[in-house]
Amino acid sequence: MEERIVARESALPFRALPAAAIRGRGPVQMVRSLLILLRGVAAAMQLLGRERPDAILGTGGYVCVPLFVAAKLRRIPTMIYLPDVVPGLAVRLLSRIADLTAVNVSDALPRLGLHEGHRRAIVTGYPVRPELFTIDRAAARAAFGIAPDQMVLLVYGGSRGARNVNRAIAALLPTLLPLCTIIHVCGREGDQAWLEEAAARLDPALRARYLLFPYLESGSAQSMAAALAAADVTVCRSGASTLAELPAVGLPAVLVPYPYVHQDENADYLVQRGAALKVADQAMLGDGDPAEGPLAQAVRRLLTDGGMRKQMAARSRALARPDAAHALAMALIGLAQRSSA
């Protein structure tokens, strides 16, 4: 899958390495995984011998382990980058052997036994598309056919969507559409059909305010960047990119963390700084009338309280790091220059 993505989105060469997860496996599978990792280290040694890089950037995952071990053996400097607040097992391991650990937010450093100012640590932010900082809000709204004075709620869950969020929004369409236009990016996992059926049952005037998309293509007028710029409030998950994309456009948010990974800590980073509200996945609709449930209340509060939205937008925008890509690049170049000196 990764090879197809690289080929579709860039001209970069792709090289695969044998790798395997170790955590949570039985003894037999663990031995097999260790043998795969050893093969991965051997393959990485050969790859590094051919390519002779001056420095290596890794973004976590067990696939980075054999490469970083081989780099250590060949004395090639490495930098591991953590986009989330909470590191996984691989990043915790790689941070110990990497020459430099870069993180999106400073809250992640203590979880790696590091602190700001440590010689092996740097806080860079998360690189996002530059257009997020410059896109024109009026033009973005015009691309979706939305009037300048209309309140807009953006709902999204990544390219695959977020089924529980989609279901909750479907239940709340009659409640929320009288207050706003909804741009709903539902993902390409089959939810569009039943969401269209739910919308078809609405009064035509409300149905016209529900803009449903499976996905928004980058580079088009109706892009994800345009949707973020057009919105007044968003409901979304709290993956790593949320920590950068929402501040880039100063967008107040109701975050619904995906419950099986460490998205709660990402959400808490924004909530604690006054840039978002948080609703638990299993609590979105509550136990009674969905229109009075936690998600509906949080969204309604933001849509109707202009002062709160303005304050939250300012606090979100204050967290933006427009220089994140440059900071990461300069740190990597610094490692490379140190290697070749």
TrEMBL record:
Alphabetically ordered keywords of this record: Glycosyltransferase, Transferase
Residue span(s) of domain Glycosyl transferase family 28 C-terminal: 152-326
Xref: Pfam families: Glyco_tran_28_C, Glyco_transf_28
GO function terms (MF aspect): hexosyltransferase activity
GO biological process: carbohydrate derivative biosynthetic process; carbohydrate metabolic process
Keyword Glycosyltransferase belongs to the record: yes
CDD domains: GT28_MurG
Ranges of residues in domain Glycosyltransferase family 28 N-terminal: 2-99
InterPro entries: Glyco_trans_28_C, GlycoTrans_28_N
Parts of the chain that traverse the membrane: none
Gene3D superfamilies assigned to the protein according to its UniProt record, in alphabetical order: Glycogen Phosphorylase B
Protein name: UDP-N-acetylglucosamine--N-acetylmuramyl-(Pentapeptide) pyrophosphoryl-undecaprenol N-acetylglucosamine transferase
